[in-house]
Write a structure and sequence with these properties.
This protein is extended. It has two domains: 61 residues, Ferritin, CATH 1.20.1260.10; 72 residues. It contains five helices and no strands. The protein binds fe (ii) ion (2 copies).
């Protein structure tokens, strides 16, 4: 009898442990970004993205200083960092099918164009002319991206439509 109770207790404890473990895992999934690996990947995507900017800027500096070979190498590293960042963006589920990607980025470009315009106003009101210049220059860049993505979306939709009517 004693043996049986002990055995049963062990079984119960084992089952409880398993359930607790499963619940913990499910909770982590429900909370999404709270999972440690996911959190680290989000942070890594951010830091890799920062490195792209820094390496590109450093490459330009090296070019200005006449160190062409170093400038080219720094540019290569920037591209490597971009690929690292891209891998994490994919792992984190941020990349969809092309039509959805274009729609997401169209929204993003519309938003960033407005933000750059606002930022340029702030910069000029604070007398920061170089910031004003770069905000304005990149605002036009975002505007071009916006128009380009719109065009790509239209072309993609036409392509889908024509393949649908051809079948
Ligand atoms: Fe990296
Ligand atoms: Fe952009």
């Amino acid at each position: 009898m004693m043996e049986r109770t002990k055995e049963l207790n062990l079984l119960v404890r084992h089952a409880a442990g398993k359930t607790r473990k499963r619940l913990n895992e499910e909770n982590r999934y429900v909370m999404g970004g709270k999972m440690q690996t996911v959190q680290i990947m989000e942070e890594t995507l951010e830091s890799e993205s920062n490195e792209i900017a820094l390496y590109f800027a450093m490459s330009r500096k090296a070019e200005e200083e006449g160190h062409t070979e170093i400038a080219n190498y720094l540019r290569d590293i920037a591209m490597d960092e971009a690929w690292h960042a891209a891998e994490f963006a994919m792992l984190l589920g941020k990349i969809k099918d092309t039509a959805s990607n274009l729609e997401i980025m169209l929204e993003d470009e519309i938003k960033t164009e407005k933000e750059k315009e606002e930022a340029a106003k702030v910069a000029i009101s604070e007398g920061n002319e170089s910031a004003f210049r770069v905000f304005t220059w990149s605002m036009y860049g975002e505007r071009n991206h916006k128009e380009g993505i719109k065009e790509a979306l239209l072309k993609l939709r036409e392509k889908v439509k024509s393949t649908m009517t051809n079948h």
